[in-house]
From TrEMBL:
This is AMP-dependent synthetase/ligase domain-containing protein. Residues 154-540 form the AMP-dependent synthetase/ligase domain. PANTHER family: ACETOACETYL-COA SYNTHASE (AFU_ORTHOLOGUE AFUA_8G04770), ACETOACETYL-COA SYNTHETASE. It comes from the Eukaryota. The lineage of its organism: Eukaryota, Fungi, Dikarya, Ascomycota, Pezizomycotina. GO terms for biological process: lipid metabolic process. It comes from Achaetomium macrosporum. GO terms for molecular function: acetoacetate-CoA ligase activity.
Length: 741
């Protein structure tokens, strides 16, 4: 790891640079800012001229510095002139809205006050997906504020692809408007009103998106879970929000198998009977023939539900809600307890989508985006979000490895995708399979590959450009989360891509790295570049949650203040900043933000702190031919005076776990990192616990090996896998093949 101070710091390999930055929307936005405010912001990022420490310099100095007229000027402008920046974002997005605002935000309030933005503005997410603003058309006869520019009736909005590419269905913007309008009429007929919750347990399908948009159309609040989640996990989420309606697929296809969901549907309905608002479930037909749901209580078919709408009447008016009012409920992973129900505002989601999708990513009406996701992951929002800008979304439903690991690559080429959104796990499997996407298909239209969900290893950065994809493609390693429905670490079309980490902060988000050794509730202190610490957001931005559903305000506090759960989750760690719980380091030269792991999973043997991602990187780089996956956690039981690091290896079929391998692993970690990084224990494991989104889960295992008994969360795809780890709480008693090696 690089040291701080004035010592020489090695610069990672540069992999990509935009050869035409002036063509990007971010550059044009910067020039508009220059013209409007008489500034001289420029597009480069010559970090080699910056002497550390520089984070505070970037974020806290004045608007213009003669030596630093670079990209960070735009970011600094966004931080030091918050209202101007976000007002410019709002108007550049050209949303359909009504009302006016006199103040963007109260800049005197800290982030833990959760200040409101753009009070007086009312808008509707679904209206802005289905239509474009007519403000620039100057049509005297227009009274709605909307038109179909870039979203014409015959233009394809969604291409739905079933697992393996076996079935393809195109839906135009005109067809989508008709489908969603009819569904919105049916919801109104069934009494769905502003503020009601509508939940989908469904595939990444046109129908799921239609329910999402119809829910927003009538001013209700949308929430979703994927069909592969267990009944317990679905109910842990859904019961919290007391929904009016549940929509659920009657069947699913995954990994080549068709699964009948009627039994799960009946169990979910039974669990929802305790909800006072619950009126029933609508079954969504997923295959040619609908399943008979007569045995499911409180159930009706999609066709029956839609028939409730008056065919001869027009759709209802869009319900435009306050910028700060809720539209979407997402959920934390809940790996150690009940998931938090995180409520996001319609306005916060929309302005952030413009900033990230348009400025950072460059998405627009000519974009074709293939984002691999389930409906239970925040990336589902990105999946639908391309429609805001008149692009085409490819909805892929099923395993990304059926019939083999090349399926998403072939679909991207076949449909002319300009963006491919994947995870490090996917890239690892593609590389392991020996695939070379750039030699397999024509990827000339592909502009960007975004990668998120876990840490992307350095070797996969290099594989991407050396072996995998064409050199013109922008690899965007991004990181943020469900909590903010957006990014802390983002891609950037103006700066180079180097090996490791994200390119830098998301515009307008005051990212800083704080000393992780400080106690909870302390006044945070920023560390020098090159030193690891906890990622925080030090000032408000629009897309933090409105509140947590079911949260309670502390006695004596304003009803507008964050509730007790909200405060404990994000604001209790340091005073007046958002602590995201990630353990990170900022490179002193490139400015890359590298995510080393979760702060609550930081490894700390003998006071040496490092992230599990550093260990995973070595295993992945050196032992991919023998080790399928790994899990690294710290063990500290009540009787322990120090923490011990435990590394668990999941072997590939036919590969042998033995003393020679353990010795080799320890030597590799010592050579690549340091002797202080070497785990005290290395064991074989038959299974690694993951969420349904395939994220490996460390904290429950850490708690188990430290002597605690936990209740598995419904979010785990394989909760039974945890049982294996209880034996390691008494590690000294283990003998035979499981002994310390």
């Amino acid at each position: 790891m690089a040291e701080s101070g004035q010592q020489a710091v090695s610069v990672p390999r540069k992999l990509w640079q935009n050869h035409d930055p002036e063509s990007t929307l971010m550059y044009r936005f910067m020039q508009d800012t220059n013209r409007k405010y008489g500034l001289q912001l420029k597009a480069g990022w010559p970090f080699s001229s910056i002497k550390p420490p520089f984070l505070s310099f970037i974020f806290n100095t004045g608007l213009i510095n003669d030596l630093q007229q670079t990209f960070n000027d735009l970011h600094n402008f966004a931080l030091t002139h918050r209202s101007l920046f976000w007002s410019d974002i709002f108007h550049a997005a050209n949303f359909i809205y009504e009302g006016t605002y006199t103040r963007v935000v109260d800049e005197s309030l800290p982030i833990d006050a959760v200040p409101r933005w753009f009070e007086g503005v009312r808008l509707n997410f679904s209206e802005n997906v289905l239509f474009s603003s007519s403000r620039s058309t100057k049509n005297a006869n227009d009274t709605t504020g909307r038109c179909v520019r870039d979203k014409e009736d015959g233009k394809v909005a969604i291409t739905e692809v079933r697992e393996g590419g076996s079935e393809v269905r195109n839906v135009t913007y005109g067809e989508l408007r008709e489908l969603v309008g009819t569904l919105a009429k049916a919801m109104k007929a069934r009494g769905v009103e502003k503020g009601d919750r509508v939940v989908v347990v469904g595939a990444n399908s046109v129908e799921t998106a239609a329910v999402m948009l119809a829910t927003g159309w009538v001013g209700a609040i949308f929430s979703s879970s994927s069909t592969d989640m267990g009944v317990k996990g679905i109910l842990q989420r859904t019961v919290q929000v007391n929904p009016k309606l549940l929509f659920m697929d009657d069947a699913a296809l995954y990994n080549g198998k068709v699964v009948d969901l009627r039994g799960k549907m009946a169990e979910v309905v039974e669990g929802l009977k305790e909800c006072s608002n619950f009126a029933g479930v609508v079954s969504i037909r997923r295959f040619a023939e609908a399943r008979d749901i007569s045995g499911v209580p409180m159930a009706e078919t999609w066709e029956s539900f839609v028939a409730a709408a008056d065919r001869n009447s027009p759709p209802p008016e869009f319900v435009r809600i306050g910028f700060h009012e809720p539209w979407l409920i997402c959920y934390s992973s809940g790996t150690t307890g009940i998931p938090k129900a995180i409520v996001h505002s319609t306005g916060g989601i929309m302005v952030n989508s413009y900033k990230e999708s348009r400025l950072h990513e460059g998405l627009g009406p000519d974009s074709v985006a293939l984002q691999y996701t389930t409906t239970g992951w925040i990336m589902y929002l990105a999946n639908v979000g391309v429609l805001l800008w008149g692009g085409r979304a490819i909805f892929y439903d099923g395993s990304p490895f059926q019939p083999d690991a090349s399926i998403l690559i072939r679909l991207a080429a076949e449909h002319g995708a300009t963006k491919l959104g994947i995870s490090p796990r996917w890239m690892f499997e593609v590389a392991k399979a020996g695939l070379r996407p750039r030699d397999m298909v024509d990827l000339s239209r592909l502009h960007t590959v975004t990668c998120t969900g876990m840490v992307l290893s350095d070797q996969l950065f290099e594989w991407f450009y050396d072996v995998g994809f064409p050199p013109h493609v922008h690899l965007a390693n991004i990181s943020g989360g469900t909590d903010i429905a957006g990014c802390f670490g983002a891609m950037n079309p103006l700066t180079p891509v180097y090996v490791g980490g994200t390119q830098g902060p998301s515009l307008g988000v005051h990212v800083a790295i704080y000393d992780s050794l400080l106690p909870d509730g302390a006044q945070g202190k920023e560390v020098a570049p090159g030193m690891p610490g906890e990622l925080v957001a030090a000032a408000p931005f629009p897309n933090i949650p409105c509140f947590l559903w079911g949260d309670e305000t502390e006695p004596g506090k304003s009803p507008a203040a964050p509730g007790t759960k909200y405060h404990a989750a994000y604001f209790a760690r340091f005073q007046h900043v958002w602590a995201h719980g990630d353990f990170c380091v900022v490179h002193p030269v490139t400015g890359n933000i590298t995510f080393l792991g979760r702060a609550d999973g930081v490894l700390n043997p003998s006071g040496v702190r490092f992230g599990s991602a550093e260990i995973y990187s070595v295993i992945e780089r050196r032992f991919a031919d023998r080790v399928q996956d790994s899990l690294c956690v710290g063990q500290r039981r009540p009787q322990d005076s120090d923490e011990s690091v435990m590394l668990f290896l999941l072997m590939r079929p036919g590969a042998r776990f033995d003393r020679a391998l353990v010795h080799e692993v320890k030597q590799a970690i010592a050579a690549d990192l340091s002797k202080r990084h070497v785990p005290k224990y290395v064991f074989e494991t038959p299974e690694i616990p993951t969420t349904v989104n395939l994220k490996k889960v460390e904290l429950p295992v850490k708690q188990i090996v430290s002597g605690h008994t936990i209740k598995p969360s419904g979010t785990l795809a394989n909760p039974e896998s945890l049982q294996y780890y209880y034996q390691f709480a008494k590690v000294e008693e283990l003998l035979g093949p499981k002994e310390k090696l």
